[in-house]
Amino acid sequence: MLSKIHCGIVIGVLSASVAAQAQDYLPILQYHHVSSTTPRSTSLTEAEFIEHMDYLQSAGFEVVDLRTALDKLKAKEALPDKAVAITFDDSYRDIYSGAFPILAERDYPFTIFINSEPVEAKRSNALTWAQMKEMEVAGAVFGSHTINHPYMLRKEEGESDEAWLSRMTREVDSVEELLVEELGHSPKMFAYPYGESNKTIRNIMKERDIIAFGQQSGVVSADSDFTNLPRFPASGAYAKLSALKTKLNSKPMPLLSEEAGGDFATDQPVSLRLTFKQGKYRLKDLACYVSGQGKATLDWVSDSEVIATASKAFNTGRGRINCTMPDNSGRQYYWYSNVWIRASAEQGYISEKS
To answer: Which residues form the signal peptide (predicted)?
Structure first.
């Protein structure tokens, strides 16, 4: 019979082993098309997708159900070691024909954010409700990507702020109702078209208890904004396996706070202020990169606070700053990204104050 001391040692070793196999963050992969005949910017081929999925399998990653994993993170419960989630945006039928057989063969759960208009119009390149029900049996989950895939922060010509908000509310609520009507339930998850949102739109999600996703890169943790979660793009220019490996080995930047000055950029260079949690980090190795400009200037306000500034203003469209920092092991990187919109007058964007 084992002594109490021996039992205590065994339990302690087992507890340490379990802790070593736990993860308190989640990288999420974002795909669109899986096809060789669709626009390359949002596509990867079936062969490339197989390469991605084979790597997840051979490297010991555990593909998890997205909503379940996010609920655990919010509750500060541990995820399996090397947990990762897979998502698709839009209602493309090639997800069913190109991706689904590959995922089903490996028994990988996945989430598709659908825009409902192509489905309801029964377009030939769109998923059908019957196909969605078939995929659900194999672990698929369907969230919302609006009705018509609009730029959610753009007003139509002559549209008031109130009318814009009413239209955007319909874009959210209508798909939620349709998911319940056709599939019997909704996971209450939403992906912003083009990754664009503002405080008003994010409040819609918060009021409805919907978890929402942008298109900024990064890793989700309990500290993340669950109305604007990051994902890693894995298609087009990001389809190379080497890029995927780097992202899968990323961790959330250990931030106490972040300030980016709002969702919109102006005719002045953007900057962001990052304050790090207490801890031993390789802050001297922090590097921030501005889209289309190279490295940002880093101004250390204190030992734990830095301001990263772009060298010049963004052009019209979306611009971002990505920051990375190696962890103490040198085998993984902390990752953070922020996106701004530089709007032009003719695009009709809602004002920053709305």
So the answer is: 1-22
CA–CA distance from 12 to each of 3, 196, 341 (Å)?
A: 14, 47, 51
pLDDT in tens, 146-173: 999 999 999 999 999 999 999 999 999 9
Sign of CA dihedral 138, 49, 74, 229: negative
Q: Count of residues for the chain?
A: 354
**Residue type (1 letter), 341:** I
226 pLDDT above the threshold of 70: yes
Domain ranges across the chain: 21-250, 256-347
End-to-end CA distance of the chain: 70
Q: Is 343 exposed, middle or buried (0-12, 13-18, 19+ CB in 10 A)?
A: buried
Class of the CATH-defined domain 21-250: alpha beta
Q: At what angle do helices 129-137 and 161-183 cross, to 10 degrees?
A: 60
Cα three-residue angle 88-111-84, rounded to 5 degrees: 90
Over the chain, what is the mean pLDDT?
93
Extract the tokens encoding 66.
Answer: 């997205």
The DSSP bridge partners found for residue 213 are: 191, 229
Torsion of CA 275, 250, 329, 14, to 10 degrees: 110
Neighbours of 306 (CB within 10 A): 20
Could you identify the residue written with the tokens 């990187």?
A: 333
pLDDT single digits (tens) 19-75: 446 899 999 999 999 999 999 999 999 999 999 999 999 999 999 999 999 999 999
Supply the DSSP string of 326-345, one letter for each residue. Answer: E-TTSSSEEEEEEEEEE--G
Among 186, 282, 38, 258, residue whose Cα is nearest residue 46:
38
